[in-house]
Amino acid sequence: MTDSGSGDATDQRGGTGVLAWVDARLPVVTGFRHEYIDYRTPRNLNGLWNFGAILTVVLLVMLATGIFLAVNYTPTAAGAFASVEAIERQLPSGWLLRSIHVTGASLFLAALYIHLFRGLYYGSYKRPREILWLTGLLLLVMVMFTAFAGYVLPWGQMSYWGADVAGKAVDAIPFVGPWLEHFLQGGDAPGDVSLHRFFVLHFVLAFAVLGVVVLHVAALHVTGSNNPLGIEPKGPRDTLTFHPYYTSKDALGMILFALLFAALVFFLPHVVFEAENFRPANPLHTPADIEPEWYFLPFYGMLQSVPSKFGGLLAAVGSILILFLVPWLDRSPIRSARFRPFYRVCMVLLVLCFILLGFVGRHHAEGGWMIAGRIALVYYFAHFLVLLPLSARTERHVVLPESIAAAQGHHATGHDA
Ligand code: HEM
């Protein structure tokens, strides 16, 4: 008789029950406890550290609502618009699920920008968190492609003409541009083939994002979180267990975020839905104003601020690529902008320029907007290529707090571990 252990649910660690049996063979419970309950986290994280958890939950909501939309959607130029209308008007709660998906996309990108600028401000990209930063940027790029592909799917006027503008941007690449545009689009203009490809891309990338999030969070748990002071925890006094302290903080952040989400879905749908996209795609009628979703506007502003089309494309693509170099462009020994007065001013200007470029995108970089766009664009690149490396020189002698607990006024007592 073989010893299958079937009659005995006791594992080597002494626990009983099904979970203990599974855990002894695949430590899901121990792993979860280790990574999300007993996990030590700096005690001073502020509200900006809520956005990673918010992003994770919104991603799951997007996948769930997306599957529902996908099973009712027709990825053909003739059927797409009508199938989305049917979801809105005929399927029970279809309007709600679609509204959650569309609002979720906007709020996901908003949370992503906050998450990214938080990392830049507090120097979370610095050693030893470079891979965390790089996986984050990979997520940014993947999410942008996913959002763009998703926007094309309803095959409304903006979907069609947005795809057309993107195709024209690719077309501007010297030598290979026209061939590449034709290859990606599957024809001379957006049509059936492109729509089918966008659908597959949207679906596949969305799930791939989930996979990269797992890597991102795994990398985070190797180094632990950075914090607003930018100094590493020196002992148990500088940290708290993830549960109950950060589970409750994250829950509060999510409730506030959910309130905003619900307000948009139920009371302000026009904020996230573009009226022009309720007209079916018409290749013979160009809308007066072709404009991407708000979250692409800063890049659209960059595209337009440069006189040459290819130059504009290089600027927009370069503005993302340059972020991959940040851990190596910034040589300062200090992480957090809290102790870097010069860098702090530069960061504020960077955010202002990014927002300004968004307005430039909205105003099609004409007249004064063109000049503003060019100044903001030059600042954007100067920030990373000149000011960031320079700032390191002014910060060699900064004195940092002795520890996180000490900075918060908690001094060592005989009871401390
Ligand atoms: C799908 C998108 C993303 C998800 C779901 C996600 C998720 C998370 C989570 C759960 C955390 C821990 C909580 C927190 O610090 O807020 C985190 C931390 C972090 N993420 Fe992301 N992230 C995403 C995209 C990005 C992007 C685009 C970047 C930047 C390029 C980035 C950079 C970082 C950094 C540097 C940290 C550590 C921050 C610190 O401890 O100071 N992430 N992320």
TrEMBL record:
Q: What does this protein do?
A: Component of the ubiquinol-cytochrome c reductase complex (complex III or cytochrome b-c1 complex), which is a respiratory chain that generates an electrochemical potential coupled to ATP synthesis.
Binding site residues for a ubiquinone:
H221
Task: Please share the entry's free-text remark on the cofactor.
Answer: Binds 2 heme groups non-covalently.
Listed under subunit, the entry gives:
The main subunits of complex b-c1 are: cytochrome b, cytochrome c1 and the Rieske protein.
Regarding protein family, the annotation reads: Belongs to the cytochrome b family.
Listed under GO biological process in this entry are:
respiratory electron transport chain
Chief location of this protein? Answer: membrane
Q: Which GO terms describe its cellular component?
A: respiratory chain complex III
Amino acids binding heme b b562: H101, H202
The organism's lineage is:
Bacteria, Pseudomonadati, Pseudomonadota, Alphaproteobacteria, Acetobacterales
InterPro entries with a match to the protein in the record: Cyt_b/b6_C, Cyt_b/b6_C_sf, Cyt_b/b6_N, Cytb/b6-like_sf, Cytochrome_b, Cytochrome_b_C_euk/bac, Cytochrome_b_N_euk/bac, Di-haem_cyt_TM
Say which species the protein is native to: Gluconacetobacter diazotrophicus (Acetobacter diazotrophicus)
Q: Where are the transmembrane segments?
A: 48-71, 100-120, 132-153, 199-220, 251-273, 310-329, 341-361, 367-388
Write out the entry's keywords from A to Z.
Answer: Electron transport, Heme, Iron, Membrane, Metal-binding, Respiratory chain, Transmembrane, Transmembrane helix, Transport
Location in the cell reads: Membrane
The way it spans or sits in the membrane comes to:
Multi-pass membrane protein
Q: Which cofactor does it need?
A: heme b; heme
Q: Does the keyword Transport apply?
A: yes
Q: Which Pfam families match?
A: Cytochrom_B_C, Cytochrome_B
GO terms, molecular function: metal ion binding; oxidoreductase activity; quinol-cytochrome-c reductase activity
Q: What is this protein called?
A: Cytochrome b
Where heme b b566 binds, per the record, is at H115, H216
